[in-house]
Design a protein that fits this description.
globular; single chain; 8 helices; 203 residues; mainly alpha
Length: 203
């Protein structure tokens, strides 16, 4: 009985993974990752092997498809992962989609600093996270909001990270770049979202 359930889950995994491969063909990087997986492990591709070589974009795409196929089981997994960050699962998924889009722009050396985001991340509910809706609101269609999201997530993933300091140093090195084009106010580094002391409570 347990074997039948496990084998059925594996067949579903393979079916949806190959579907994700086909959908990813328009993206050179995702298609290359999918081809690598197929070449190494063929039709017996395992979850660990596939995700180790997949891009973030392909993984997110597959996650969405798999979630719809096994909604009850996988929705619980998504919820538990999002809880680690104190967020709703759909909100975290929105953030990851936006981060993936920005990562792709950076990987191809595209202009980002004054660009309007193609995938604007959702913002937390104001009643639960009022800091995201402060008086000096950071618009969610510019790269400034991506900096705030990275700051927020890194506070949980790596509390001792020096990334925020390096970002501030980079801004100081290029003062001629107008921060307002990034959706940031002149004193953006004083924004409560950027400062852990006033940021949302972390687990």
């Amino acid at each position: 009985e347990g074997c039948a359930e496990g084998c059925g889950g594996m067949r579903l995994w393979l079916l949806l993974w190959h579907e994700a491969e086909s959908e990813a063909e328009s993206d050179v990087e995702d298609a290359a990752a999918a081809a690598t997986v197929a070449a190494v492990v063929g039709v017996t591709v395992a979850v660990a092997a596939a995700t180790a070589t997949a891009t973030v974009g392909l993984s997110l795409f597959f996650c969405s498809r798999y979630c719809r196929a096994v909604r009850n089981k996988f929705s619980e997994v998504k919820r538990k992962v999002a809880e680690e960050y104190g967020l709703a699962d759909e909100l975290l998924h929105s953030w990851l989609r936006s981060l993936n889009a920005v990562r792709n722009l950076c990987a191809h050396h595209a202009r980002l600093w004054n660009r309007e985001l193609g995938y604007s991340p959702s913002l937390p509910q104001p009643n639960k996270f009022p800091v995201w809706h402060a008086e000096q609101k950071v618009p969610n269609n510019r790269c400034g909001i991506i900096l705030m999201i990275c700051r927020d997530l890194l506070a949980i993933i790596s509390p001792t990270s020096q990334w925020a300091i390096r970002v501030e140093e980079l801004f100081a090195e290029y003062p001629e770049i107008p921060s307002n084009e990034m959706g940031l106010h002149e004193n953006w580094s004083q924004h409560p979202l950027w400062n852990l002391e006033t940021n949302r409570i972390k687990k």
